[in-house]
TrEMBL record:
Residues in Amidohydrolase-related domain copies: 37-302
One GO MF term: carboxy-lyase activity
Protein name according to UniProt: Amidohydrolase-related domain-containing protein
PANTHER family with a match to the protein in the record: 2-AMINO-3-CARBOXYLMUCONATE-6-SEMIALDEHYDE DECARBOXYLASE (PTHR21240), ISO-OROTATE DECARBOXYLASE (EUROFUNG) (PTHR21240:SF28)
UniProt-listed GO biological process terms: secondary metabolic process
A cellular-component GO term for this protein: cytoplasm
SUPFAM superfamilies (alphabetical): Metallo-dependent hydrolases
InterPro entries: ACMSD, Amidohydro-rel, Metal_Hydrolase
Keyword terms: Lyase
Organism lineage: Bacteria, Bacillati, Bacillota, Bacilli, Lactobacillales
Length: 304
């Protein structure tokens, strides 16, 4: 059995070097990016969990926050090409790549979907963040991207970022709030109604949603509460079987995919073992556990 980790991160060296030129304080702002397993594929191979292939996406360093639209899109394109090359050169480690976009250049982002995502079978979708350019993910300016991705049945990976307006951001709780708020924004904007084919994979097991299922069901209109359950989620909770039970209760077995946030969370290479143990401890049949470990990903991405 080969597990498919749908949410694993990298920071490819050429792209990282260019981002450091734009912001030399990045390692201070985000100390986790100093983990060498993010950038060094030889170290990645040395620490790779057994019987696992990863779908890789960039950590949350986004050129759109530093460069005007044309230049941001150019750097994003080069970063995506570097990401694709890593998958092609390490097929035994990586099951696919998740592309970045530049939300300050919508036309070029759509072109990248056309000529990069749709033309490379190793590119399984795109990653978006809980906020872009200081705006809600559901801002009308960004709507054409979601419409185009839904039209072409391209999955979206949703990763949290801090809200720069808040002075008390922290890595323990803030990201989970921001991610949940982004989910709510998309639901209330009617995206699942307007784009029935929309597929969004939410990091960290759907963040706060499973824990607040009662509030979702009793406060939101019935159709929006139902739409909240249309997200797909990973299992990146650093373990915690009881929380994963709530996640399964809320989203359903078919929408929960093995994902670990590797190599982050537990040094040096992430929490793959701890999360695997938490899934093994769930009151499920082995067949149901295998759905989480690889079956749901194979179904969602057309086989891997």
């Amino acid at each position: 059995m080969t597990k498919i980790d749908v949410f694993a991160h990298v920071l490819m060296p050429d792209f990282y070097e260019k981002m450091l030129m734009l912001d030399k304080e990045l390692p201070t702002k985000m100390p986790f990016i100093l983990n060498p397993v993010l950038t060094d594929m030889a170290k990645r191979r040395e620490t790779m969990p057994a019987d696992t292939r990863q779908i890789i996406s960039y950590v949350n360093t986004n050129p759109e926050d530093y460069l005007p639209g044309k230049m941001a899109a150019l750097l994003v394109r080069k970063a995506n090409e570097e990401l694709l090359a890593a998958v092609q050169e390490n097929r035994d480690l990586f099951a696919g790549a998740v592309a970045m976009l530049a939300f300050n250049n919508i036309p070029e982002s759509i072109r990248m979907i056309d000529d990069f995502v749709l033309t490379n079978k190793e590119v399984l979708g795109v990653q978006v963040f809980s906020r872009h350019l200081g705006k809600s993910l559901a801002d009308p300016d960004f709507r054409p991207i979601f419409e185009y991705l839904a039209l072409h049945d391209i999955p979206i990976w949703l990763h949290p970022v801090f809200d720069s307006r808040k002075p008390d951001n922290n890595i323990i709780f803030s990201w989970e709030y921001e991610q949940t708020q982004a989910m709510l924004d998309l639901v209330q904007a009617g995206y699942f109604q307007d784009f029935p084919n929309l597929k969004i994979i939410v990091h960290h097991a759907g963040a706060m949603a499973p824990y607040f299922a009662g509030r979702i069901d009793r406060i939101l209109p019935e159709n929006q509460a139902a739409d909240f359950r249309k997200f797909y989620v990973d299992t990146a909770l650093l373990g915690n079987s009881k929380a994963l039970e709530l996640c399964l209760d809320f989203f359903g077995l078919d929408r929960v995919l093995f994902g670990t946030d590797a190599p982050l969370g537990i040094l040096p290479a992430g929490a793959t073992e701890e999360i695997s143990q938490a899934i093994d401890a769930l009151p499920l049949t082995q067949g149901q556990k295998n759905q989480i470990f690889y079956g749901n990903a194979q179904n969602l991405f057309g086989g891997l």
